[in-house]
Amino acid sequence: MARNVKFWIVANLMAIVLFLVYTTYQKEEILRSGTLILLELIPSDPRSLIQGDYMDLRYLISSPEQLPQRGEKGSERKGYCVVERGEDGVAILKRYQLHPTPLAEDEFLIAYKRSASRVSLGAESYFFEEGSQEKFLDARYGGLKVDAKGNSILIGLYDVHKNLIQP
Question: What's the confidence (pLDDT) of residue 142?
Answer without folding.
Answer: 92
